[in-house]
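Morning run. Coffee first, then this:
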Amino acid sequence: MAPFCRTSFANVRDLTFSGTTNYRDSYAYQDASYGYDGYYVDQNEYQYYFRQGFRRGYEDGYNSRYQYGNYVDGKYAILAAILSQILNLQPLS
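And here it is:
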């Protein structure tokens, strides 16, 4: 969830001012380590989810929509359904 919150509209602005509209050109996307502390998941796994959140946040921001997340009380949040899709969550039986 954190990567989405740190992307969206701010990253669209930053990428636009840097002369590119491709999120893959962003250093943050390429590095994908922002906020990684090494305690809970392997760095490769973290980078995968970071990029998923970054891409979705970028797409929402670039297209001025809230398909992957929403904005409530001054905070961006990823939708639970999208988070479930990214993490491949399954109900307990």
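The beta strands are 69-72, 75-78. Good start to the day.
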